[in-house]
């Protein structure tokens, strides 16, 4: 049961009552006549072999208000792509599978590289970006939602509540972020959000002073959730990172492009669990270690575009301030866990804080050493200006792949 408190500068849409799912879906069917809906599913092939995605597809197959589903498939051979087409064929809705490693889409990517417009690195951001391009090429949807493919506790109510704020014609929201409590199997999860993002936002405020951007980020209850929805026109100017800074990058773009009264967050699940990343203390090229560096860099870049000047001393102050605030949060979460009968490993929590503190300085040094870095993928507006036929060519390539290999 959620509360009704409105904190921060972004509207929060709570789950105040257990409203019947049938009521929500009846309304969404009605909304779909005016605002057709599309769902983006960015997926690794390995997720087709996991325990989560099969249930997700079974649940989505029961949804009849979605007009189109776009699945971005990464790290798949031809044989695996054929398997994926069969795997997703149980979906009764119109759907397309983007074989991002296939020769047709690789040829599209090569055209982009020649123009300096291709995403700089592989990953979820690149996958999502190509899916967004296909949504624009298709032209069928007015409201678009996106969620991850590793949600172990998925049911279709999550999708209904995620779509509702941007699909309802009487609402004026352009963008909606999903949130939830990261509690599963008797434990509090979500370490990067709990122990990095929120303490880092608060420490940046202490060191740099009050900034509207930091107040804005701090308004989101779960800023790293992979679930969000938006109106079609949001896609045109969206510039997103291709690394783990995707979620923070999207929120930053919404702050740049829209008034905060056009943005909201919605409670989409009472219980949420998904695949967990290793802390990866010994290797900052993977796991939560790399994630923490990418997220910190995304925040520093955005603050720099707002005129904030950083130097080595600044980052040392941020680290020291962060460390104290984060340890206070560890105590708060420990007490919350004890009162609710949940497990929380104090040692592992403080290990994470120590790693994140080190990585804040690493991220700061990377930012200072490479000020000319261009981490954002170009907007589709820019791509279409440089390559007017590319979206049509991409759509034709996806259709050809689906028809040839199915």
Automatic annotation (TrEMBL):
Its EC number is 2.4.1.266. It is an enzyme of class 2 (transferase). GO terms for molecular function: glycosyltransferase activity. Keywords: Glycosyltransferase, Transferase. SUPFAM superfamilies: Nucleotide-diphospho-sugar transferases. It comes from the Bacteria. This is Glucosyl-3-phosphoglycerate synthase.
């Amino acid at each position: 049961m959620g509360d009704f408190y409105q904190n921060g500068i972004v509207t929060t849409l709570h789950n105040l009552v257990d409203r019947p799912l049938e009521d929500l879906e009846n309304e969404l069917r009605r909304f779909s006549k005016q605002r057709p809906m599309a769902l983006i599913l960015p997926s690794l092939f390995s997720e087709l072999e996991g325990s989560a995605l099969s249930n997700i597809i079974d649940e989505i197959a029961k949804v009849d208000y979605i007009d189109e589903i776009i699945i971005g498939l990464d790290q798949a051979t031809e044989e695996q792509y054929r398997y994926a087409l069969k795997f997703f064929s149980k979906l009764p809705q119109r759907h397309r599978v983007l074989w991002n490693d296939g020769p047709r889409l690789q040829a599209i990517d090569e055209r982009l590289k020649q123009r300096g417009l291709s995403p700089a690195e592989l990953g979820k951001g690149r996958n999502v970006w190509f899916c967004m391009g296909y949504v624009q090429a298709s032209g069928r949807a007015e409201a678009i939602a996106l969620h991850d493919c590793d949600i172990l506790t998925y049911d279709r109510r999550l999708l209904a509540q995620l779509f509702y704020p941007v699909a309802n014609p009487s609402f004026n929201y352009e963008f909606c972020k999903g949130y939830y409590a990261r509690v599963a199997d008797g434990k509090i999860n979500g370490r990067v959000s709990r122990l990095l993002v929120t303490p880092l936002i608060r420490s940046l405020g202490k060191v740099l002073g009050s900034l509207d951007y930091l107040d804005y980020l701090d308004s989101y209850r779960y800023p790293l959730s992979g679930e969000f929805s938006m109106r079609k026109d949001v896609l045109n100017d969206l510039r997103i990172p291709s690394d783990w800074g995707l979620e923070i990058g999207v929120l930053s773009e919404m702050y740049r492009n829209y008034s905060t009264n056009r943005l909201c967050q919605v409670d989409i699940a009472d219980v949420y669990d998904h695949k967990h990343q290793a802390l990866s203390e010994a290797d900052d090229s993977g796991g939560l270690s790399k994630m923490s560096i990418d997220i910190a860099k995304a925040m520093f870049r955005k603050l720099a575009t707002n005129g904030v000047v950083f130097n080595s001393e600044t980052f040392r102050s941020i680290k020291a301030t962060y460390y104290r605030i984060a340890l206070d949060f560890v105590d708060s979460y420990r007490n919350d866990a004890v009162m609710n009968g949940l497990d929380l490993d104090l040692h592992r929590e403080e290990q994470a804080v120590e790693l994140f503190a080190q990585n804040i300085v690493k991220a700061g040094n990377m930012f200072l050493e490479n000020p000319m870095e261009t981490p954002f993928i170009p907007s589709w507006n820019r791509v279409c200006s440089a390559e007017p036929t590319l979206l049509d060519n991409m759509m034709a390539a996806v259709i050809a792949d689906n028809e040839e290999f199915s």
